[in-house]
């Protein structure tokens, strides 16, 4: 029996190896971000950049290894999904940073 799961339309649904790699990468990325914040031995900008970078890599790992989005399947619809995901991610992160900056400027005394 094959290690790769396929659906009735022939599309690949990954293998145990890809799921294991995805799980290990997700755990490692989470531990990196958690460790950088909890040790407190890094400056605030280094912590922020590390958390954002590991979060973006985490999203890409989840999309590729768990949701099986790639550039080869379904006539380009997966590429559109990637572009949409990057757009939404940019809007959420950029909007959150903008809101937090405005709250900081308008609410902080001094």
TrEMBL record:
InterPro entries in alphabetical order: Cyt_c_oxidase_su4_prok, Cyt_o_ubiqinol_oxidase_su4, Cytochrome_c_oxidase_bac_sub4
Presence of keyword Coiled coil: no
Keyword Transmembrane listed: yes
Compartment(s) of residence: Cell membrane
Keywords tagged on the record: Cell membrane, Electron transport, Membrane, Oxidoreductase, Transmembrane, Transmembrane helix, Transport
Membrane association type: Multi-pass membrane protein
Stretches that traverse the bilayer: 21-40, 46-67, 79-100
Pfam families according to UniProt: COX4_pro
Highest taxon listed in the record's lineage: Bacteria
Subunit architecture: Heterooctamer of two A chains, two B chains, two C chains and two D chains.
Record-linked NCBIfam families: CyoD
Summary of the function given for this chain in its UniProt record: Cytochrome bo(3) ubiquinol terminal oxidase is the component of the aerobic respiratory chain of E.coli that predominates when cells are grown at high aeration. Has proton pump activity across the membrane in addition to electron transfer, pumping 2 protons/electron.
Family affiliation: Belongs to the cytochrome c oxidase bacterial subunit 4 family.
Protein name: Cytochrome bo(3) ubiquinol oxidase subunit 4
Lineage start: Bacteria, Pseudomonadati, Pseudomonadota, Gammaproteobacteria, Oceanospirillales
């Amino acid at each position: 029996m094959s290690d790769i799961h396929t659906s009735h339309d022939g599309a690949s649904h990954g293998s145990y190896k890809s799921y294991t790699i995805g799980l290990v990468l997700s755990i490692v990325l989470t531990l990196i971000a958690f460790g950088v914040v909890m040790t407190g031995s890094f400056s605030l900008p280094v912590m922020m950049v590390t958390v954002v970078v590991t979060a973006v890599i985490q999203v890409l790992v989840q999309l590729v290894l768990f949701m099986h989005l790639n550039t080869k399947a379904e006539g380009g619809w997966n590429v559109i999904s990637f572009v949409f995901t990057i757009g939404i991610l940019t809007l959420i992160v950029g909007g959150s940073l903008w809101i937090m900056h405005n709250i900081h400027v308008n609410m902080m005394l001094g």
